[in-house]
């Protein structure tokens, strides 16, 4: 989704005015979610280690660790997506970027951001509808632990919302830079 190397990622502190303020606030949220996600990875590792130890050494299997671990990993994946996009860290193929002239490459990058924004907008809308259906219908997983599905769907919807807003911010920043 990046379409640009990390060197071209705009710093949230580079813009002045309202757009710069919004970018700095997004940066704060993204950094907080990244730190929270790192903690969640450590907790998930501890949960899975606990499950292995209790199952194999004490012969006491647990029924909750898989659901909790998957939910935490969903939160980590979607919670970090906006931060990764902000730093242009998503996987990208830069073959065209290396052969196109700079002006054509800027157009390509803008189109990639715009198409990514449109796709993520649709994905965000669907994520919120999944969350709402799971909430209204009381959907749960099929496991014996049976936690509610609105939990991972809400993390997915929240993360996709942040990713979509990050892409929108980048599109607006690119438009502003092209007019300057």
Core attributes:
mainly alpha; single chain; 180 residues; 5 helices; elongated
Characterization of this structure:
With 180 residues, this protein is mostly helical. It has one domain (12-91, 100-179). Helix content is 74%, strand content 0%. The protein has helices at 17-56, 65-86, 95-99, 102-137, 150-179. Helix 1 (17-56) packs antiparallel against helix 5 and helix 4 (102-137) packs antiparallel against helix 5. The longest helix has 40 residues, at 17-56. It is elongated. It starts with 16 loop residues before the first helix and ends with a helix.
Could you state the order of secondary-structure elements as H and E?
HHHHH
Q: What percent strand? A: under 5%
Distance between the termini: 25 Å
Radius of gyration: 20 Å
Contiguous uncertain segments of 5+ residues: none
**Main β sheet profile:** none
Class inferred from helices and paired strands: mainly alpha
How many domains? 1
Mean pLDDT: 91
Tell me, briefly, the overall form.
elongated
How many β-strand runs?
Answer: 0
Give the % helix: over 70%
| Distinct helical segment count | 5
